[in-house]
Amino acid sequence: MMRAVAFAAACAAAVLLGGCATGVQPNDPYAIKLDRISQRVDRLDRILNNQSLAGLSQRLDSIESQVRDLRGQVQELAHEIDESNSRERNLYQDLDRRLRALETATPGVTPGGTSSAAGGQAPPGSAQQSARETYDHAFNLLQQGNYDQAEKAFGDFLAKYPSGPLTDNAYYWLGETRYVSRDFKSAIDAFQKVVNDFPQSQKVPGALLKMGYSYDELSQWNDARQALEKVVQSYPQSTEARLARDRLKQMKNRGH
Question: Fewer Cβ in 10 A, N or C end of the chain?
Answer without folding.
Answer: N
